[in-house]
Design brief:
The protein has 4 helices and 29 strands. The protein is mainly beta and 380 residues long. The protein has one domain: Beta-galactosidase, Chain A, domain 5 (Distorted Sandwich). The N terminus is likely disordered.
Length: 380
């Protein structure tokens, strides 16, 4: 039998290797898996779901509080790293934390003095943030077990979470049926759809409270460059309750219409609003020309090149720069100190139930609350 020349054998081997690699790429698919995450003191079981897209991006979500515990994103070298604050086990979440990755409801953000009137009736809420109510109360949506349904179709993996909030739970009227759907696509975008109906008039303002750090949890976020498409903010008093007016960002540290380092604005401590929030902890009114999903914010970590785009159907966003993180919490081999994470909480304005000039957050029977927010990750 005649032997093949060495160069021809090499070419054939390279071809086989190339085909093998191509087939490997073609067979990468989106997946979702489930494992036990731990148990609550009352014996309820919490599960952890891992969503993985065809690029290898992963998102971890637990049905306890709908918490996003992990999101991986690529840097400019193609290396993936976790970009959200949180913990690797259930126990630290149960012990108490500043809403890391949580679903927030019934009302995200603050309601002044924990009271509001609706159709002539005054409702009282838990006071859990100075003199005010914050993020749904002492046991909001972030501290309950949600019914989970896995989604895996058309190159998209996801998790649908459902919870029924009983009439007068945490002081809010009406039986509220809530469905929140997380989906991960092959464009490295995590979308969150919020849907709710009620049998009595109530107020609703749902959001997700993920703390992002695009360094991969290596450094603080002061060098992150942030842009927000907004001409005005909602000014607040010393307790972070809106004054009822809007304030133009022009000529202030709140002008983030062009990419601006976080530290550039926070360093301007002579600004009264910056003092009130201890940094950025304010609501920006999103500039839009039409309804629907709109790109309103971008964030970049210059060193790693990680880049995040945020889209929403909501009228506003609370931009928060981890002002109250104090280093007492640790997770994922990181210490969560001041300015170690930032939040972009898409929402209606704070204290809207007490502010007749703000867009309404009232939901009536027969109506459907429906909003969507999308976080997309890439590298530049």
């Amino acid at each position: 039998m005649k032997k093949l020349p060495v160069f021809l054998i090499t070419l054939i081997s390279m071809s086989i290797f190339s085909c093998s690699e191509n087939n490997k790429e073609e067979t990468m698919i989106s997946t979702i898996s489930k494992e036990e995450f731990g148990k609550l003191p009352d014996g309820q079981k919490a599960d952890l779901y891992t969503l993985t897209n065809a690029n290898g991006m992963t998102v971890n979500i637990t049905n306890y509080g709908g918490i996003v515990t992990k999101i991986t994103a690529p840097d400019k070298k193609g290396e993936w790293a976790d970009v959200v604050l949180g913990f690797d086990s259930l126990a630290p979440y149960l012990a108490g934390h500043p809403f890391f990755g949580a679903l927030v409801g019934r009302y995200g953000n603050r309601i002044g003095k924990g009271k509001f009137k609706l159709n002539g009736t005054e409702y009282s809420l838990a006071i859990n943030n100075g003199p005010n109510a914050l993020h749904g109360g002492k046991k909001g949506f972030d501290k309950v077990i949600w019914k989970a349904t896995e989604i895996n179709k058309d190159s998209i993996v996801g998790l649908e979470l459902e919870y029924v909030s009983k009439d007068m739970e945490e002081g809010y009227p009406g039986n509220l049926t809530v469905k929140v759907t997380y989906t991960l696509d092959n464009e490295n975008a995590l979308s969150i759809n919020y849907n709710a109906t009620t049998d009595k008039p109530t107020v609703v303002n749902l959001t997700n409270h993920s703390y992002f750090n695009l360094t991969g949890l290596k450094r603080d976020i002061l060098d992150h460059e942030v842009s927000i498409a907004s001409d005005s903010i909602v000014p607040v008093d010393a307790t972070l309750i809106p004054t009822g007016e809007l304030r133009a960002v022009e000529g202030t540290p709140f002008d983030l219409r062009k990419p601006t380092a976080v530290k550039a604005g926070i360093d301007k401590i002579e600004d009264e609003q910056i003092k009130n929030g201890g940094g950025y902890d304010h609501c920006w009114v999103i500039k839009r020309s039409e309804p629907g999903l709109v790109l309103f914010a971008t964030v970049k970590d210059p060193e790693s090149g990680r880049f995040m785009e945020v889209y929403t159907t909501e009228p506003a966003v609370q931009f928060y720069t981890g002002n109250f993180l104090d280093g007492s919490l640790k997770g994922k081999n990181a210490t969560y100190s001041k300015r170690f994470g930032f939040c972009l909480e898409t929402e209606h304005y704070p204290d809207s139930p007490n502010q007749p000039g703000f867009p309404s957050t009232v939901l009536n029977p027969g109506e459907t609350y429906n909003t969507t927010t999308k976080y997309k990750f890439s590298a530049k």
